[in-house]
């Protein structure tokens, strides 16, 4: 024993010794926080939670033998004082009786106060836990319980005891709910989860049943304070363990925890409601018997105090037995969890009904043990079911759902002390037990509602369950349905389940004829545009139109209409001599018995035998046969709004959220729950083909020496987890987003991305930028791929990339905040080998770049906030890209994540880095690809301009179509730049037909030519009224063909020109401004994006002035006063080095006209890339 006091000299030594001991303890506990073994880590967490639950329930029951006696002692002391004061037996008798009646009520309220406050706080604590995670609420709960226990120890009046009991309810609302939720979160396997929750329930039972004798013995021999001080010490130790192991205030991953489903939504879930009802009903017998059985035993059995004190202790053993049996049964037969719960309720009901028939203490033990045995069955079966229901029906965040479970318990234990005694007084003890027993027996069949849900649970293994029995949740249900379709032979085409393969195939000479393709693409352009109309923001739930079932076939124009339309489109663009020559060729082509009729007959036959007669022509001639490199020449990009990342972790958090949205969108596709697009305008309400959406995440463009192959993987149960590829510092990593058939949540995705970033930074020997090879010409890339395939290591890496869902490219920052033009070019080509050009894989349809995005759908995320999507164009058109991108951006802005929780972070396997074996030949190929990409970077002339003078609202006020208006403005701008018009196309959707993609609209109409000439050449000779009539005429012609559907998000699309001496123009009209993206090539002496934008701005201002003058008579000169023609060009001068002007060497007959490719903003949800014609080509057929 240490003396009570110490000398001053001893004090420092004692302090140092204590500090040393605490330091050692701190080091040991600190090591617990860095446990690497996931099994041991979960075990430590389970111990912390079980001790917290044990403490809570011991504190709940330890007062049973202490507080009534203690309060009665206080009451007797008060009575004696009152007797002395009043000296009146009558008065004393009256007061004593009144006080005694009040004393019973006080005891009942005191006992119930904990459950009542816990009941009130639980809805808030559950939401709080969902927001901040499980560790902080658990730590808060332990602290509050510690305070409550100390208050109990030193309380000396009823008010303080009531406060302590109420504070305990507050602590329990946090500690109990957070503890159970933490177990459900860390133990993701159903077998492990059931076992862990069973152990927790055993501690709850032990605490509840051992507390009365524990408290009674210590109270009798050591006084009131001792049992509470012991519990307070244990609580303090558990709190220290929680602080050192869970580290609640240093858990950065908490910031990325998905948002849980609101508790009110969980409460109205019928399955969760049934479980909550069962938990309440099954605990009513225990809650109502605890305050009433003692009096009944005294009156009917003349039981001794020790018998009353030991009433519930024997029931601990059958409760533990029930937990053990349920865990074992659930592991072997997990689909019968509902049945175990029902059996437990029948046990409870039967046992409750037999309680009044007992004549002695020994007989009473049997029904009480039966009640606890049944409760063990119900709790152990249904608590894991709650976690499972949240996994498959909501967000895998467990705070609110286990708050509902706690509420269920609290309802029973709040009512018991308050109303049970009154029921016994009014109806009798027998009726109380019969009513409780009958309620349990009648409620048991309600658990049948859970039968189909629990059948989805995995039994021996998740793989076996997925293959043999029901799947777990929406994701696995989709996979199971796909497997069943495949087994029945239904998973072969996109018409059946949204997937399609595109095998390499040979064509007959007629089918692959280049001439045939040219003539019919030229001839059908306007005819199909008229019948197509533009899409589509109107949507309804999917009716499985993925493959176009139920849609009409694409019509085939008669030959005469085709040729007449072709001549009409060409006449005003050619000289008289050129047109006469073209007319003669067309006449010869369409002569009776000529080549035209022969080809037309073959097309008629083709249309009869195919869903879409033009589909293969379009796919092959437009994309797969094209030998140009994909970046700039083919792949469009969507540039996100500029992100402002304040710290490096922000870009990774953005990427994790983006991946979460991709997985959510893919789930919609896999389940065919994506709403069907419907046409607008004259064909409003017409459903559109959804086939292209289902190639977003399962297709890949495989390079070939002469023609590429579009490969789509059939959906089936995966031989290995689904994955995405993350590109970081020109290296590629495999990130599994599905592990054990469960999708990762955003917190785990962020953790995996952080690992990838660290791995990329720490690599001492980085592999060459293999992604550069995909930026080369298609034939060159095919040859390089053949060289790579010689090594098995490279084959494995290529296989992982080609089968991935999409790419996420984590780009390095590119200096200070970039202009829109610079960001657009970073998306298109990555800035070349010196920047992020090698951090891509252009063959994949979707690449997301937070950073930047591409196909493999590539999503690019730049550390400097430059983010977007790069799309390999062959599987789908622009509207699909736009719809997907809008979904992702809106998801990230306002939608909570709804991802199924996988394993905890510590259990996730580290991402795998793809390895490459590079020979000297591969290094030479890389150098060649890098050089070509750099030339593309220097050659691209991109100008993104935001026109702020007005937007589409002004155009609508003129009763004009914004799209047609802008198309005419583009024609005017081009004419002023080059003093002529050229063949121009605007994309038009033909998705109202089976397998429909796009055709084109010829925007350079005769009416547009008349207007631009009047505005330029005839400025003085043509009146303003005549110009206005010409403008309306040109717009009316254009309006017949188009309906603009701009994107609703402030993003923009851009692409390169499709011919060397042309322009690519994309626009996104908003209410008060218009975003233009104009591209051309520096190598062409005829084009300049900056000059074109200046002419475009002037054209838009002149057209506005013309409208204002003719509509209101205002002076256009005054309106333009003070305005400048600044183009707000945003270009990176390092990429804008213009090649020197070359003297023309073309003869008059060889002279080519600059060409322009026009697309609307979001590729305006209607997109195509038919190459425009030069003057030299215009007369060819």
UniProtKB/TrEMBL annotation:
Reaction equations catalysed: choline + acetyl-CoA = acetylcholine + CoA
Q: Which residues form the Major facilitator superfamily (MFS) profile domain?
A: 45-455
Q: Which UniProt keywords apply?
A: Acyltransferase, Glycoprotein, Membrane, Neurotransmitter biosynthesis, Neurotransmitter transport, Transferase, Transmembrane, Transmembrane helix, Transport
* Cellular compartments per GO CC: cytoplasm; membrane; neuron projection; synapse
Alphabetically, the GO molecular function entries are: choline O-acetyltransferase activity; xenobiotic transmembrane transporter activity
Enzyme Commission designation: 2.3.1.6
> SUPFAM superfamilies given for it?
CoA-dependent acyltransferases, MFS general substrate transporter
Q: List the InterPro entries.
A: Carn_acyl_trans (IPR000542), CAT-like_dom_sf (IPR023213), Cho/carn_acyl_trans (IPR039551), Cho/carn_acyl_trans_2 (IPR042231), MFS (IPR011701), MFS_dom (IPR020846), MFS_trans_sf (IPR036259), Tet-R_TetA/multi-R_MdtG-like (IPR001958)
Q: What is this protein called?
A: Choline O-acetyltransferase
What is the source species? Etheostoma spectabile
Traced from the root, the source organism's taxonomic lineage reads:
Eukaryota, Metazoa, Chordata, Craniata, Vertebrata
